[in-house]
Amino acid sequence: MGRQSRHTAGRRTPSTVGGRGELRIIGGRWRGRRLSFHAAPGLRPTTDRVRETLFNWLMGDVLGARCADLFCGSGALGLEALSRGAEHCDFVDREPGAIRQLEQHLRTLEAEKAGQCHGGSAEAFVAAAAGPWNIVFVDPPFGAGLVQPICDLLAQHDCLSAGACVYVETAREEPAPTVPPSWQLHREKHAGGVTSRLYRLD
């Protein structure tokens, strides 16, 4: 998800027309499905190219996984995971409009049982230790200082399964989060102004 910043200049993002955006699911059972979303100021869905790279990294992990899409916005990452065979995804966002829209998308895709939407802060949700999750997507607004606190909470609370994967997307110039020794940096890629990191727990 994420929110737009000057660091995304030049990136190919989903099209917007008349205040509406369009998200395309790129793989799995809903491949090619296009879903509209309200193009709220600053909303920055993860691009097709970055999603393709991420799900290539996760190819052996998604099937049957329980996921959490924190700071979900348009829900691009969680919906892609469900399309590719994840068992469940918790979608979390503090914007009521984003949550209502995702609930509608899940109904459209007949996936209400697989996806559950939660309004409120990702920090409060993780602190409630709602897992365990096999895959967690951390893609907050760029430059907002949210990556380190949410990684700290994920490490502190009993909400990650053994061998879990944590994906973190930041602006390229933002520092990598400080993570526990048990979080091994499995993959890292820079594309334009974005850095993608995938951690795997020992």
CATH names the topology as: Rossmann fold
Tell me, what is the CATH class?
Alpha Beta
Please give the count of helices: 5
Radius of gyration: 15 Å
Mean pLDDT level: 87
Distance between the termini: 27 Å
* Fraction in helix: 10-25%
Number of strands: 10
- DSSP strand content: 25-35%
The overall number of domains is 1
Order of helices and strands: EEEHEHEHEHEHEEE
* Structural class designation: alpha/beta
Question: Would you write up a description of this structure?
Answer:
With 202 residues, the protein is of the alpha/beta class. It has one domain (6-201): Rossmann fold (3-Layer(aba) Sandwich), CATH 3.40.50. Helices cover 23% and strands 31% of the residues. The chain has helices spanning 48-57, 76-83, 96-108, 122-127, 147-156; strands at residues 16-17, 20-24, 34-38, 66-70, 88-93, 115-119, 133-138, 160-171, 183-191, 194-201. The strands form 2 sheets. It has a 7-stranded mixed β-sheet, sandwiched between helices. Strands 1-2-3 form a 3-stranded antiparallel β-sheet. It is globular and about 40 Å long. The two termini are 27 Å apart.
